[in-house]
Each structure stands twice: as structure tokens, then as C-alpha cells.
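The records we work with from here on pair a chain with its fold. Taken together, the C-alpha cells spell out the fold as the letters spell out the chain. To see the layout at work, look at the sequence and C-alpha cells printed below.
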Amino acid sequence: MRQSLVVGNWKMNGTRSSSELLAKSIITGLGSSSANIAVCVPYVYLFAINELIKNTPLALGAQNVADKLSGAYTGEISAVMLGEFNCKYALVGHSERRSYYGDTNESVAARFCQAQGEAIIPILCIGETLEQREQDKTFAVIDAQLSAVISLAGIEAFSKAVVAYEPVWAIGTGKTATDDEAQEVHHYIRQYVAAKDQAIADRIQILYGGSVKPNNAGGLFAMPDIDGGLIGGASLDAESFLKIYHSI
């Protein structure tokens, strides 16, 4: 039985004080749910949030990780550095990194491997643009994004990873894939992995990320191949984020 997971991605938002208040409010409202929960915070707040969430169910994640171990890579943050702040997760290949900052399937695969090298669980973000969807290229895009990681890391690496399907056309737009549309792609991803290793496919958590809100989370999370969500804007409001979490 796969355990559910809800991850908040705060993106480039907040101040130290507002981030601490948000984390405290989330911790207070967690209750007794057995689902896993994490927040991916801006690098500069990792220390402060790590101090707040010690000995709580809330786990810490980073929004990216360097594709190199160390060296002359100005502005990058290595997996070793993230490990010092007890980061359990790190996003790799988020659509905004791919779209705005030139991350390629190959560099995302390298970031994935760097995270795992420090026992950080990579959350591999994959998904298609609206143009690609309208051209019926969704599955071809998914294939390319997954195969790049499998080629570098091997299918066994997915036993210690999370996949997040985020249709680019539904991120921050207010549009959301229908429950059936999201399930179709999640099922495809699981079958893609199953063709290489059924046991890993049965265990891997596949999250949906695309304008998840309290009013649509329940339907999405009820789908058999959707194991939780990667939550953007709604994770910046404790009440909304907690409603999504408790809808698992």
C-alpha cells in the first residue's frame, strides 16, 4: 500500500517571518492524518524552517539542487549543502526551471543523481505544455523526461524517488486537469515504470501538481494512480494547504 504525500512548493515567496508563521500554522493544524507532508522552501529560509519543524511530522525540501557536487558554479546549491539542513526532498525539473532557466532532461537527470547521492529524495517533475498536449505529444514528452533519468540513474533509482506530474498548462493558470485526465497520465507513468520493474511501479508515489485547490483535491486524490499532490499557490495559505492535506 502506497502512503500518500502532499508537498508544498513555496517558490520565490515570503519573508523569514511570514515563512516561519506559515510553518507554525501548518504544524498546528496537522492533526492525526497518516499521510506524509513536506514543504519546499526558498534556500535562504532552510535553516529557520528546519529549526521550527524538528520533531514534527512536517518534512523539509529544497526547490532545486545543483547538477554538480561542488566547484566553480556560482549561484548553485549542492546536495551536500542541502543535507546539512536535513532536507528530505528536493524538487528536480520543475517546469519553471525547465522553462525559464534552461534545465534540460539531461541536466535534470544529473540533479536527480546528485540528490540521491546525499540520500535526499528527488521529486522528479515532468509534464507537457499546452502546445504539446494539443499536438498529442503528452506521452512522448513524458517518455523523454523519464528515459533521460533512467538512462543515467537506472530504474532502481526510482525506488527512492517521487514523480510529480505537472501539466505546464495547469500551473498557476487556474486550469486543472480533470480527475480522469490526470489519472490517465498517472496511469501511463506507472505503466512506463512497470514495464521496467513492476515492484518499483507498485511502490512509487506519483503526485499531481497543477492548480490543486481544496475544492478539487478530493476528486484528484481519489484516483487510483494519484498518490498526493505538489501544491503551489495554495501551499502559501496554511488553511488551504491543510484542507488539501486532510482531503487525502
About this structure: The mean pLDDT is 96. The first strand starts at residue 5 and ends at 9. Residues 5-246 form a domain with the TIM Barrel fold (CATH 3.20.20.70).
